[in-house]
Amino acid sequence: MKHKMMVQIATLAKDWRFRYQAMVTRFSSISTRKLPKALSTLTSNKCMVVSSDYDDFHITVKRHIIKNVLGPNAQKRHRGHRDTMIANIVKDFHAHVKNNGIQPVNFRNVFQSELFGLAMKETVGSDVQSVYVEELGRLSKHEIFGILFKDLVEVALDVDWREFFPYLKWIPNKTLERKIERLSFRRQAVMTAIIKEQSKRVTSEEVPYLNFAY
């Protein structure tokens, strides 16, 4: 009888739903925690894959992303991208020494540009240099980086004093709210434009110089 009970417990422990329910029961804040206004808007209320693991869809997508970007086979497949990134970084450093002599070099700008390019290659298939967005016009690579990453990180770090005083949330903070909504709108518009361009490339069977298929 005792052995049978232990087998049943072990079987339940293997089920992620059971483990999740046990954690939620023990730590209710896991599923009920409320994100700050900025993060709630920027993550579409926890709907972004990287910020949610509450159902089969997000768990499956996370697993595929990790496997196809960070897995052993993916690392081999993307070796060329990394080699290109390193070569570009070295070239930028040499160009700086040649043109600016002993002037200090801004490592952040160099690594930032190349790492963003690597991320774009591994996600949409090419290092997007510019994109036309209906709502915003044509944007450069630097502007795309600002909208998709830099601006979002900065606004996520903005502190809304109302989060510390829930009973005062009725007091408006229009400046911050408008800023968050504007950045969220711009991010959505840029991502939609990039996805549309990639879809056209796939439909027309155009193969970018660094495209990849899973």
Automatic annotation (TrEMBL):
Belongs to the cytochrome P450 family. It is found in: Membrane. It is a single-pass membrane protein. SUPFAM superfamilies: Cytochrome P450 (SSF48264). InterPro entries: Cyt_P450_sf, KO_chloroplastic. One of its GO terms (biological process) is gibberellin biosynthetic process. One of its GO terms (molecular function) is heme binding. This is Uncharacterized protein. It comes from Rhododendron griersonianum. The keyword Membrane applies. Keywords: Membrane, Transmembrane, Transmembrane helix. Transmembrane segments: none annotated. GO terms for cellular component: chloroplast outer membrane; endoplasmic reticulum.
